[in-house]
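Q: What does the predicted 3D structure of NAD-dependent epimerase/dehydratase family protein look like?
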Amino acid sequence: MRIVIVGASGNLGTALLRRALPEPEVQLVGVSRRRPSDEAPYSAAEWHPLDIAAGSAPTRLRAVFDGADAVVHLGWKLQPNHDEAEMARTNVRGTRVVLEAAAAAGVPHVLVASSVGAYSFGPKHSRVSESWPTGGIQTSHYGRHKAINERQMDAFEVSHPSIVLTRLRPGLVFQPDAAREIAHLFAGRHIPVPLLALVKRLPVLPLPTSLISQAVHADDVADAFWRAIQRRAGGAFNIAAEPVLGPESVAEALGIPRTVPFRRQVLRAIVDVSWRLRLQASDPGWIDIATSVPVMSTARARAELGWEPTVSSTAALRSLVDALGVNRGHEPSPSLGA
């Protein structure tokens, strides 16, 4: 079985390579803007350094995809988020190029990493299925791009009914090995990574009560992708671990004694000003996503893929913060795939 992974050096890509390593008779092919190190799990793949936003990408990708049993698209840019057009060249145009190249190469199964961030505004105290509208949160570049890609995938399914298309929509994806990369993407390179782990020493955790999110370990997302490949399961699947992360569960996971309510508008203003001044790397759209997207039901993934998370959301969060404290991450740091 020949599996091509676009964005294979990133957060999810690394986890998927690990998941596929013990599988018999699997040929792994990695596509990445930069070739990663030769250590495991990267050493198990045949590599093609390739930028999916480049003008040559359609032709080069079609050649790489030739003979593939499945293509997994994880390629994504989260920075530079002061230049949305630059990100869109990879996130939106790049996704279209991957889909078109897969169709041209006759790939029978295409899997794409979507996100909880693709969903429109929804409830926090009940759960939604994969049928919830995917219009994105329009004040977030991430939400806008994910929503555009959902429409591209809708059109792809209509145009190519013989190709199985799978969309996985995970919550926040954590793993210790990606700690440094995640810190650089969301906090920026001016803030020392170990400093971020000092959040565990706070006497109280000030967070908006509406900041309720879902998270999942990267290895569990990789397992969901692999199960979908094995079953050639099409359609959308929500992927998240338990429990749902609210202020109190986050505080408990990090060992912080108590929480205090913090106004969403105040937090958003602080993030907005500090981002505009380039003091940190997260734009305020991330606050809008965290406080606006619905809580997902994972019933379909459990029933149709036989998927169960092996790591709780609180354990995944705790392990990430612990890894920040020791500045953990691969060298050289690859771009995250999703």
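A (community wiki): The structure tokens above were generated from the sequence. The longest strand covers residues 164-170. The chain is about 40% helix and 15% strand.
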